[in-house]
Design a protein that fits this description.
This protein has a single domain, classed as Roll (Nuclear Transport Factor 2, Chain: A). Helices cover 18% and strands 35% of the residues. It has helices at residues 29-32, 41-54, 57-62; strands at residues 79-91, 98-109, 112-125, 128-135. It has a four-stranded antiparallel β-sheet, covered by helices on one side. This is UPF0225 protein BJY17_000433. Belongs to the UPF0225 family. Pfam families: SEC-C, YchJ_M-like. InterPro entries: NTF2-like_dom_sf (IPR032710), SEC_C_motif (IPR004027), YchJ-like (IPR023006), YchJ-like_M (IPR048469).
């Protein structure tokens, strides 16, 4: 499986790339290390953003619902993810079956800057949240 070669993990006491205000060790770190599961759709969204930021294609595939998961996931080494803004959420709590998270993710690729604005859909299956798809 192709993947991003960066794999730059923040230290546990560094600010989390998802900009939740928590440290990486308190926020997305345990999820990417597979020592914890996301309790909500928005936390899964944050951890997936962080996985893009550090180049963890394996985590992205593991948290992608089997019905829509791509066979291969090739992350662009030239894209740097700069910031995540959660715009809104619908459902997606610990007892919900599904949820939606609208977000804006700022990035830089080569000399260009951009914003990915997406409304993502999530399903909770056997107690675990999974990304299904999204509308850009």
């Amino acid at each position: 499986m192709p993947s991003n070669s960066r794999q730059l993990r923040p230290a546990a006491d560094d600010r989390c790339p998802c900009r939740s205000g928590s440290t990486f060790g308190e926020c997305c770190g345990p999820l990417l290390a597979r020592s914890a599961e996301a309790p909500t759709a928005v936390q899964l969204m944050r951890s997936r953003y962080t996985a893009f930021a550090v180049g963890d294609a394996e985590y992205l595939r593991a948290t992608w619902h089997a019905s829509t998961r791509p066979i291969d996931l090739d992350l662009d080494d030239d894209t740097t993810w700069l910031a995540l803004e959660i715009v809104s959420t619908e459902r997606g709590g610990p007892f919900d079956r599904d949820g939606e998270v609208e977000f804006r993710a700022s990035y830089r690729s080569d000399d260009e800057r951009g914003v990915l604005h997406e409304r993502s859909r999530f399903l909770r299956d056997s107690g675990r949240w999974f990304y299904v798809d999204g509308d850009v």
